[in-house]
Amino acid sequence: MNYHFTKSCSLPFDQAITRVTDALKAEGFGVLTEIDVKATLKHKLDVDFRKYRILGACNPAFAYRALQTEDKIGTMLPCNVIVQERADGKVEVSAVDPVASMLAIDNPELGSIAEEVRGKLRNVIATL
């Protein structure tokens, strides 16, 4: 089983970030964190890296349901979505597959929540 959904697009990097953020909002997610991996690696290690951004997306209603179902699930939140520039100049967007993440947890109720979130994240990727 894949642990992510991925799609390439020909949008410029910053436009892809905006498009993904807007698509997440349309599905009820907000971006809680944004990690600029390129800038962080340059600052911390003085290495050059491609444009690579990690968006920590959260849908509050689903997060609340998951936390009520499994109190340690916060270790697996938020849902990460990455936007990265590929060597061919295309931009690739990937979202975690929450169903794959939940395989480690024996809780059928949590699995059904993950299925719903999976559908929303697939919708986000499909908009690109």
The SS-based structural class is alpha+beta
* Sheet with the most strands: spatial strand order: 1-5-4-3-2
Compressed to H and E, one letter per element, the order equals: EHEHEHEEHH
Biggest sheet statistics: 5 strands, antiparallel
Work out the strand percent.
25-35%
* Fraction of residues in H or I helices: 40-55%
Kindly report the average pLDDT value.
Answer: 96
Number of strands: 5
Low-pLDDT stretches are none
* Rg result: 15 Å
Shape: globular
Number of helices: 5
How widely separated are the two ends?
23 Å
Q: What does this protein structure show overall?
A:
- The chain has 128 residues and is α+β, with helices and mostly antiparallel strands.
- It has five helices and five strands; from the N terminus they run E-H-E-H-E-H-E-E-H-H.
- It has helices at 13-26, 37-45, 60-69, 98-102, 108-126, and strands at residues 4-9, 30-36, 52-58, 79-85, 91-96.
- The chain has a five-stranded antiparallel β-sheet.
- A hairpin with a 5-residue loop joins strand 4 (79-85) and strand 5 (91-96).
- Helix 1 (13-26) crosses helix 5 (108-126) and helix 3 runs antiparallel to helix 5.
- The two termini are 23 Å apart.
Summary, kept brief:
With 128 residues, the chain is of the alpha+beta class. The chain has five helices and five strands.
